[in-house]
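Need residues for this backbone.
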């Protein structure tokens, strides 16, 4: 990626001084290439969705963080720097047991939720997120907190991710119900031979009594 330069002309003492400020490569073209949400959705929707391949957020998330920070004007560096480091350390993991998310440098935070703990899933978008093709997938549990336990950002296939989490959540809860039903059936099956033996003994007893009476 080519390193960009910003040139500012100042008029001092009747002569022009030209001062160059170099923009880091990370920010080069950051705002010049907004994410076309419609094109991305149509292209990615045709391919098979595999959440296990999602380990890092899309670069559009960094552009979103930059725009949100610029809106604060004076507080830009204080808002953008934490978000910048969060983007570069943010990692996801989706496996058979649940979903994990971790981020942070000095104070590292990690959240792991099993599919059985998930109670509800919300998909939200603000105006800027819609423009960039992004969304926030909020996962709520039965912890009693008003906000989501986990907020997944930077995934372009947010709808497919929400549907996947719903399917895994229902599947995990269904396994518990199936296990309970199978356990009850096995208990009934174990009790069935005992009932048959008892009935046979009763028939033999009754037959012996009938023969004794004759």
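Answer:
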């Amino acid at each position: 990626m080519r390193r960009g330069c910003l040139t500012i002309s100042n008029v001092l003492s009747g002569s022009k001084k030209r001062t160059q400020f170099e923009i880091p490569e990370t920010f080069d073209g950051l705002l010049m290439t907004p994410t076309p949400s419609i094109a991305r959705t149509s292209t990615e929707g045709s391919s098979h969705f595999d959440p296990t391949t999602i380990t890092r957020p899309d670069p559009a998330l960094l552009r979103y963080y930059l725009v949100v920070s610029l809106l604060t004007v004076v507080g830009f560096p204080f808002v953008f720097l934490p978000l910048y480091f969060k983007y570069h350390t943010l990692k996801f993991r989706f496996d058979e047991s649940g979903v994990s998310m971790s981020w942070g440098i000095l104070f590292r935070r990690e959240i792991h939720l099993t599919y059985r703990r998930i109670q509800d899933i919300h998909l939200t978008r603000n105006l800027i997120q819609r423009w960039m093709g992004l969304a926030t997938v909020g996962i709520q549990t039965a912890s009693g907190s008003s906000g989501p336990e986990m907020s997944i950002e930077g995934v372009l296939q947010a709808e497919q991710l929400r549907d996947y989490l719903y399917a895994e959540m229902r599947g995990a809860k269904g396994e518990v119900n199936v296990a309970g039903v199978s356990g009850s059936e096995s208990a009934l099956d174990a009790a069935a031979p005992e009932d048959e033996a008892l009935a046979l003994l009763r028939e033999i007893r009754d037959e012996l009594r009938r023969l004794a009476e004759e």
